[in-house]
Amino acid sequence: MRIQLLSGTLGILFAGAIHAQQSADSVRTVALDEVVVSESYRTRQEKLTALPVDVVRKDFLSRHFSGNLVQTLEQIPGVHSMDIGAGFSKPVIRGLGFNRIAVSENGIKQEGQQWGSDHGLEIDAFNIDEVRVRKGPASLLFGSDAMGGVIEVLPPVTPILNGLAGEAVLLGKTVNGTLGGSLMLGWKRGAWYVKGRYSEQRYGDYRVPTDTVVYLTQKMPVYGRRLKNTAGVERNASLFSAYARGHYRMNVALSNAYQKMGFFAGAHGVPDLARVQDDGDSRNIDLPFSRVNHLKLTTHQELFGERFIFSGDFGWQYNHREEWSAFHTHYDTQPLPERDPDKELEFRLHTLSASLRLRLLPSTTWEHTVGLDAQAQRNDIGGYTFLLPEYRRLTTGAYWLTMYRPSNRFMVSGGARYDLGRVRVAASTDPYLAEYLRRQGYEEEKVKAYEQRSVGADRTYGDYSLSAGIVWNPMPQHLVKVNLGRSFRLPGANELASNGVHHGTFRHEQGDPSLGSERGWQLDASYSFRRGALELTVSPFLSLFDNYIYLRPTGEWSVLPHAGQIYRYTGARVVFAGGEVTCDVPLPANLSYRLAGEYVYTRNRDERTALSFSPPASMRNTLTWERGRVRLYAEWQAIASQRRIARNEDETPGANLLHVGGSLRLHALGTHVEVALDARNVFDTKYYNHLSFYRKVEIPEPGRNFQLSIKIPFNQHSK
């Protein structure tokens, strides 16, 4: 079936037998039964390959809102949050994280969160209307860092009516005393739309259901069950403008994200009971702490006709990250810095990105897309310690993708991509360390080896990715999708050249400049059944990597003070397997039930162990009652124990958690006010997140939390 949309834009709809008609409180799983093209390539085309794509819109984001994007997306099976206390979070999809998951905002890949477990996303959770979560290999479209999936934050949709509109949001949490809010104003007139938003959150030390934690075999008290120095502040400001007329449309987005968060002093450096003493102020941010400022400017340009869409995305971003800790030299030969003596680490990452795409629509059965991407990066460093060297990185890639639909019941897609990358790492030496080691009596050969903190390297990489998939719709109630892809990832600068004590992960991390690119074959499939409001989806996957890069404990003892053994980035043959299942069942009396389960199996075939940070199996059972303007829910979350662990990793026991809550829409102040109250971890259960930054020091997850949010929209339309 072909439908032409004539309102300043032309779209072609290839419709199958299944239509996305889910309730507003569920995640909409997008099947490749149709391809929609209207306002722009990014915002309207929801299905390019046979990979599973979950689309969550503003109603879902509002009902599961936590003030943190990644923690909100945890409601999607297969998506996990790697947390750093109650502040920073980074995404994990099907057990893959760090720089294997790309995060795209307004068409430009977010840079900075992939460096380590203590580097979270700098995105305003209040400023998001729609997110696509692509599970599986997405290197074909998004490049090297997307071999495990993509979280794609879409730009806002331009309203149809002229006039002024906006919203005010208030947020409060009891677990850490969060006080937050956001104000948005948007103005539409003719072809122009302008929107601005300011958001801020402030929170104190968060509560944990324990009185002690253990770090390096030493018990440390948690006074008042508040984890000292975990307070923080977030401030986000953004400006978005869009223009559309005739066959041309564009947008420009400017944003600045600021975060400052304390680190629990008992888990940073050498254990010291004096540093965890209660200071009587649960909202101050003392040393050690992290501070991040992320400035970003992006633009999307688009020109379209009856049979083509030509678009480009261009962006510049500056990620400035600092870690501050009271000056502590591990060797007395290092003098106190004259300026900023407590600045431990500093990274200044500049990134320029460009992407061009041409989408051709020659007929109702064929569709082709060709694209070209390029990115240039420069990282400068500072601070009195060393972890990551200065480097320059340049990558470029070209791809082709085609889709053929001979009938409404069957579609086949395929494509190929090739990327080139060059990384130039600056050499770095530490004369203070060399002098210290000589005084300790080490041989000159070992002194020279440790003095060279970073070996200068100039590496060039080239690799390719492939994808082939089918979508089969044999009957209106059934849908089958299968996709086979080869993906790759160029090694990051930290994997090539890091060399030092990373307090964030409690170990000496060492890169390997001889590493090759990471490669793998991945098979994804899914089956969906739908009859009325009843829906069942099963999505298995299998991934085989022949050069998976991970931090391997070497058994070599580092001569750096308080460092322990050396962990070196190493390639290995690994397996990922598992899947997700979701089932939505309508019940009488305005009730509905949703089951969402997930399982990930990992194995290092060389070490014959599991991989570190492998998420445990889990299941969510949610019962919802909804009538009119009132919605109530109760959720039982079951988390299995994780006993399949990597070397030097701790097992994590399972847990059962109860969450309850509800929302109410009120007509007040001339508008519809939405009030939501949620209670998480109702029984204040002590449990651990196997992916948590603090798991190694036996710090449990935050305790019982009551969250209140109030959203007040308003508008004033004109002709």
**Mean pLDDT over the full residue set:** 86
- Rg measurement, Å: 26 Å
**Morphology:** globular
Q: What share of residues are in beta strands?
A: over 45%
Structural class: mainly beta
Number of helices: 7
Low-confidence stretches: 1-48
Total DSSP E strands: 36
Most strands sheet: 22 strands, antiparallel, barrel
Q: How far is the first residue's CA from the last residue's CA?
A: 35 Å
Helicity level, as a percent range? under 10%
Describe this structure in words.
The chain has 719 residues and is mainly beta. Helix content is 6%, strand content 54%. The chain is built from 7 helices and 36 strands. The strands form 5 sheets. It has a 22-stranded antiparallel β-barrel. A 6-stranded mixed β-sheet has the order 1-2-7-8-5-6. β20 (391-407) and β21 (410-425) form a beta hairpin. α5 runs antiparallel to α6 (444-451). The radius of gyration is 26 Å and the shape is globular. Mean pLDDT is 86; it is low at 1-48.
Q: What is the topology?
A:
Elements: E1 28-30, H1 41-44, E2 53-57, H2 58-63, H3 69-73, E3 79-84, E4 88-93, E5 101-105, E6 108-109, E7 130-135, H4 139-142, E8 149-153, E9 162-173, E10 178-189, E11 192-203, E12 212-215, E13 218-221, E14 232-245, E15 248-262, E16 289-304, E17 308-324, E18 343-360, E19 366-382, E20 391-407, E21 410-425, E22 428-429, H5 431-439, H6 444-451, E23 452-454, E24 457-472, E25 478-489, H7 493-497, E26 499-502, E27 507-510, E28 518-531, E29 534-557, E30 565-587, E31 591-604, E32 618-627, E33 630-639, E34 655-668, E35 671-680, E36 705-718
Helix pairs in contact: 5-6
